[in-house]
Amino acid sequence: MEQLKHDIYWHFKLKRSNGRALKALKIIESYNGKVSPKFRKLSNEYATEVLGNKAYAPWLYVYSAIQNRFDAGWIPDNYYAKEVVPRLNGDYGKVADRNFITPFLLSSMESLDVAYFINGKFCSPDSKIIDPMAVKDYLFEKQDKIVFKLENSKRGKGVYILDKNNFDPSTYISNKCGNSVFQKFIKQHPFFSEFADNSVATIRVTTVSDELGNISARASYIRFGRTKDTHIMSNSAISIPIDINTGEFHSVGYMNWLQVDKHPDSNVSFHQKTIPHFSKCVDKAIEMHRVIPFMGCLGWDLTVDTSEKVQVIEVNGINNGIKLSEATTGPCFKDLNWSNLWKQTQQS
């Protein structure tokens, strides 16, 4: 019965994912032209014969449409979600997405967390319960603004910027708010504010741990918000691929798979722009992953602040999709033999 539930769940999850892939493909083909029948055929064969399911082909179409070629090393985003993440991260991937647990896992990380709301109680990072009557003064003792995030918030939903005037602790208790975290508000480096100054830019660095626990950074991109957004929203953000070795932007970014060569609000070009202190961002992600080498692939969201210090915003152990990186800078994971993981899952 459990296997049947699992199969039904993934049947519909793969179907939804492929719907998104085909929608993306239609947009990409509007400016890059139709994907070659040859590449479609190779994608179908690779998905079926190597990855074990033709349902993985649509994301390979997307990658081919972006790069105008086919590469047998690509990992489809839905294969990654179904076979790679569960196999390499397991339940610890879910633990990494728990805000309260992360500082304990990564004790060397200087956390942005100020407080938590867990199971109906306000709690400090050192596990002390905070009186609801005192929580406002506690939160805003050292900062004018804080960031509130629901646990497992996705696509920018459940994230709010708060100040002392609009914070009411009774709201969280009376509405039975889900588990959440209150974090320090980051003042970002001026480089990022040139593009968008109303929201904090996030640099995603994807790191992997191989079979021997060697950690390496494989891909990176940056996301900017729009003028109207107080924080990064997936449905409106602009994502620009980054050269993982240099920190230089690609000349074009993507907004819901439409290509843009400059920020649509500030009109600042992406051409020949390099992130300041990018190597420190990569080093920080690798350093943190070395603490938990038993997790196979993680997505780190970071930024650089006005003091030129790298800030770790969050780590993603479950919802760290790879589609943009594979489509624009991939294959990023060709040497890791991830294409064989589905066979191991069937045998176990």
From TrEMBL:
Protein name: Alpha-L-glutamate ligase-related protein ATP-grasp domain-containing protein
Alpha-L-glutamate ligase-related protein ATP-grasp domain sequence ranges: 178-322
SUPFAM superfamilies: Glutathione synthetase ATP-binding domain-like (SSF56059)
Pfam families the record matches: ATPgrasp_ST (PF14397)
Xref: InterPro entries: RimK-rel_E_lig_ATP-grasp (IPR039523)
